[in-house]
Structure formats: C-alpha cells, structure tokens
Write a structure and sequence with these properties.
The protein is of the alpha+beta class and 115 residues long. The chain has helices at 16-31, 64-72, 74-80, 99-114; strands at 5-13, 36-41, 55-61, 87-95. The chain contains four helices and four strands.
Amino acid sequence: MDNPAYIIARVEVHDWKAYSEYMKYTPRAIHQHGGRFIARGADPLTLEGEKETLRTVIIEFPSMENAKAFYNSEDYTATKKLREGAATAQFVAIDGYPIEEWNEAVKNSQKLGEA
C-alpha cells in the first residue's frame, strides 16, 4: 500500500481578484487525482523562526504518483494559467510518514522517559 503524499505550496499573492478565479478551479483538478485540501490559508501562525507571510496550502494525495499526476495533468496545467501574474508560488511534494514508523517512534520515545 502506498503512503500518502503531500504538496505544500507557499504563495505570494499579488492580485487577489485574479487569484480568486484560480482558486475556484483547483478543487476539481485536485479531486480528479484523489487529493484534498488539508490546510489552505493566508494567515499562518509562526511558532518559531522568521515570520511566515506567504499563503500556505497543503494538499493530501493517496500517493506520490497521484500528486505528480495532478501537478502534470492537462487540467491543472490549464488552471495554472489563471494564476499567472496573480501570484508567485513554490510547490513541493513530499511523501507522508508511514503510520507504522510513527507508532514505533512513539513507543521508543516513551521508553526513554521510563529509563
């Protein structure tokens, strides 16, 4: 079974009216590849480090293959054109952390507190 994958986008919006049009079309393209928004906001809370001022979007996909298929799809390629001039973006895809590995890490970490 594949692990989920995530696309993290950091976006500097220059023209909210034009960017809003782009935002209307992205759910359709994402859904076609099994994805969904996990987080989508323009006002992130910086907990450590330099203040984050960019819009942050996190999209979950069933696998890295689905994430790549979405980003390279004809539908999203056409949708991206709506963003041109309205925003500057960075998109990064990352594999999800397997739940089995997480459970093992928690178990090992808890043992450290018992020693």
